[in-house]
Amino acid sequence: MSKNLSIYIHIPFCKSKCIYCNFVSFPNCEKFFHAYLEKVKQEINYHALKLRHRTIKTIFIGGGTPSLLNGEEIFNLINHVKQKFSVSKQAEITIEVNPESFSKEKAIWWKKAGVNRLSFGLQSTDDVVLKQLGRIHTFSQFNQAVQIAQTLGFTNISADILLGLPNQTPQNIRQTLRKIAKLKVTHISAYGLQVEQGTKLFELVKNKAVVLPDEDLSNEIYNSAHLELKKLGFHRYEISNFAKVGFECKHNKNYWARGEFLGIGTGAYGFIDGMHYENTINLTDYITKDYLPQNAEKETEKTKMEESIMLALRTEKGLNIQNFNKIFNVDFCEKFKPALDKLLQQKLIKITKNHIKITNFSISNAIILQFFMLID
Hints:
- This protein is an alpha/beta fold.
- It is built from 15 helices and 17 strands.
- The strands form four sheets. Strands 9-10-8-7-6-5-4-1-11 form a nine-stranded mixed β-sheet, sandwiched between helices.
- A hairpin with a 2-residue loop joins strand 9 and strand 10 (241-243).
- Helix 2 packs parallel to helix 3 (104-113), helix 6 (170-181) packs parallel to helix 8 and helix 11 (301-313) runs antiparallel to helix 15 (364-372).
- The radius of gyration is 21 Å and the shape is globular.
């Protein structure tokens, strides 16, 4: 078993809730910051009792809006992980940042703590669209934040954007990407907008107050984004993630390789020793009750196989047939022959040496489902 480990720390606070957001996040809860961070440290202590022999290769502080916390709070949090675990000197340490809560003072603290990767939540370069989404920053603020971060020596900077926004076209997604690339960011994540029940967007779409691109146009937007990013020097290494060479997100790559990770904080989930667990999404319960992982569940052979196929096929590298056969003691090509024959005939996958790769990522879910249907 690998002794390497990744840690995800969830900061569930934000200034305001975006219309599409269904994450575990709570607006205007500054009064809980201190108590929450103390509880997070207790949870780190809990896991360190069993896992302090592991080497931490990546730390990812996500949210919510982690950049709402002051610089010293983030410094102390990362320092606490370093005190309780052996953190590699080459560890990738990421913090998610919203442009409106970025400041030079905070970034200096982050740098001092060892943060070496910034992931900005941008979503769009159009200020009108940002306002429609409930974002409280402008493209100009993002621009300024990136430039300040670069002057401080941050070279690994990512930007998140959304695909499938109202009135989005293949033409304007290409313009968006060109604007971002001019800032010399090294990584871009392009996620399809999801309409989740319980969000404001769900009600707006249901009432036809907001009209989103249909499936064909959404696929066209995705493919245009991929081609434009390729021209701009970003290679796709996972369905939604594009990077300059050497700037792939190590933390996320660990997820896709089914590596082990701790999930710290309310709503976080982890995967250790073949067990999936998740934490309560109730902020008050998390802060006030004794910490124990919830819904801990040993993975079955079926769920392990499904997850292995789904995660591998979402990557540009694809699924390693030899490794799969070794792990599951099966012949992949024999077990999944009906799906392989059908998908090869439709040219939706290709087999190169020892790997199976998807050729059309815009319909990846439908392709992956063909394999799931053959798992007992």
